[in-house]
Structure formats: C-alpha cells, structure tokens
Design brief:
With 139 residues, the chain is an alpha/beta fold. It is 31% helix and 21% strand.
Length: 139
C-alpha cells in the first residue's frame, strides 16, 4: 500500500513478515527434542552385552528386562520371578509361539539369567531371544 508524504514523495508500508524469530524458536525446539528423544527411548537402563550377530526388531514385542540390581521387568513393570511366566503369557494373549525378548545387564550373574530362562521355559514359552548390542569394530 502506497501513500504520499507532505513533501510529495510516495512511500510504501512494510508488508513482509519477519520470520527470523520464528526460525529461532523452531531451532531451539529442534535442539530440545534431539536431546530428550534418547532419554525417552527406554524406561529401564541396562548395559547390554556386545556381540557380532545382532537381529534388528522393528515391531513391538514382549520384553523381559533384568537390570543390574537383578530386578525383573515385563515391559516397564516390575514382576516377581514366581509370576513371570503368567505375566508374559498374559502379554502374549495366548500366542505361545510369539517371540519373547530378554534384555539383561552385563553385571547380572548368570544364575539370575538362568532363573529367568527357567521361569519362561516352565511357562511353556520356547521362542526366546536375547537382546544384545553390536560390537563396534575399527575400520
């Protein structure tokens, strides 16, 4: 929109929007989300053992976790070892052939891991996979 000044000159009004503050806010939000996303990935912190063979799973599965204090979780809920089989079978909704994944901290003694495996075998669950991290090789 143009208008005339008392001196007879024509001027136009500023009709463009300054998007610099908008871009600044978006970049700050992007940085915040990038920093918080890895924290929200899992609720139970375990240091997984590292192996050469790792299978990538993209579907939501039943996961049994043993943390370094030897607390057993199904999903994100703590479970007693004596109720583990019943809880996992309930999560599988009757499909005993569906895979069950075990995440176990490297600091957990083998005896505790074996007790969890035994509890799952006692519940007639045979499709059990162990979750590990890939070895990082130089090269």
């Amino acid at each position: 929109m143009a208008f005339t000044t008392p001196q007879g000159r024509t001027q136009s009004s500023l009709s463009e929007i300054n998007i610099t503050p908008f871009v600044d806010v978006m970049l700050v939000l992007l940085v915040i989300f990038m920093l918080t996303a890895p924290i929200l990935q899992t609720g139970i912190e375990v240091t997984l053992p590292k192996t050469h063979t790792v299978k990538v799973v993209t579907h939501e599965r039943v996961v049994v976790t043993i943390d370094k204090r030897q607390t057993i979780y199904v999903g994100n809920h703590a479970v007693n070892i004596h109720l583990l089989g019943k809880e996992v079978r309930a999560r599988l909704k009757g499909d005993a052939s569906a895979p069950v994944y075990i995440r176990c901290d490297v600091a957990v003694p083998f005896g505790s891991f074996a007790m969890v495996m035994d509890a799952l075998k006692q519940a007639k669950l045979d499709n059990i996979d162990i979750v590990t991290e890939p070895l990082r090789t130089k090269g």
